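User:
Hi there, any thoughts?
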Amino acid sequence: MSAQPPRTQLSMWGVVVIGVGSMVGAGLFALMGEAAEEAGPAVWLSFLMAGVVVLLTGHSYAQLGIRFPSRGGVVEYLVRGYGPGTFSGACSILYYISQLIGMAMVSLAFGKFAAQLIGIEQTPLVWERALGSALILGLSALFLNGSQLISKMQKVLVVINLTILTGFTLALSTRADVTRLAVSEWPEATPILGSLALTVFAFTGFGVMCNSVEIMKNPKRDLPRAMYTSIGLVIVLYVALSAAVAGAVDSKELSSSGASLIAVAARSMFGELGFSALLVSAAVSSVTCLSGGLFGATNITFTLAERGQLPSRFERKIKASTHGLTITALLALLLINFSTLTTVASLGSATALMVFTLVNVSAFRLVKDSGKRRLLIALSIIACLFTLLVWMIYTYRSAPGAFVTFLVFLIAAIAAEALLQRFNGRRILAATKDSDPGARRRA
């Protein structure tokens, strides 16, 4: 019998590259400006607090990833934690909704960057939606036809983007006016805390590292290390960049530039050439980020449909992909053309925090082998719940429409799951066994 070829194995640093590349992207460009509108010069503090929340949540993801390696990822963790039934199914659908919102945000951000590059000034929202929709349709067509163009270029583009951002941060920090960062220049505590959900959303993507467990050399050792290292590196980048930007632009630009804030800061140092270069970097990041989102959402819908949590149409093949891709693209298009970037970013933040909270609670119920680990998980639950509660109170007062839409999404997830269970007659089931059953008994 011929020997099986060795399976590709990832080192810890290989997983770190995946994690950093998944977090640093279009979300940073889109959300830093939105967060700065609320937190002002204290936006760096908002990113720091968000990083702590995400670091705690990353610990929960790492512990679950070690125990339950599965392509289902979050779906698997939710089922394991809450058991098969309406609740875990509704949580899984909410997770899918959060992915849709994330794709809509990235697409609208791309539309804004592209419109500014082209020089469109009239009816900008119409053009942002049109260009964002064109991006979704174009990438969906590539996936349906089996094109590997984007995936082949993605790693190179991620490295280029990280290099640009790191170099830009270092250069901009030499020109920053530290007096603009003084506590006396900060707004009140309420808007700073209100921006926290947005800055948390800028870190989303770290969970993709758990999908690499099965091809890691030593997952029990390397996955936690990779998780903490990648999130830690991104925290340093985000805090340094946001502080440099806040120190380089005046208060008016800081509170009004929106998704273009980083490009506006580039203009203050490098002129129009720097402004255009950062817009190009942001647009490219949007393309790579959305391609990853479409690929991930296709896997999610296939897994959910396979287990009966979505109609079987989602798992049917169409050309080189599935109907899940086309349905996901259509739903994202609806979100794009009936929302604004600010609204979508706010909703994405809330749904991501809800999913983080649910995963953290699941981890608390499943990881019982160490008091220290359970303490960290308990802290992550408290941190996520606090951030979500602050978002709800702040948004209810400042943007009640977004708050109501969030509640509608929650109700829709529960109603969809109840209807699917009634008509499909199937419940979602765990796909894997505990990879380390004895771990729960060891101190």
Summary: Residues 361 and 381 are 7 Å apart (CA to CA). The beta strands are 317-318, 321-322. Confidence is low (pLDDT under 50) at residues 1-6, 436-443.
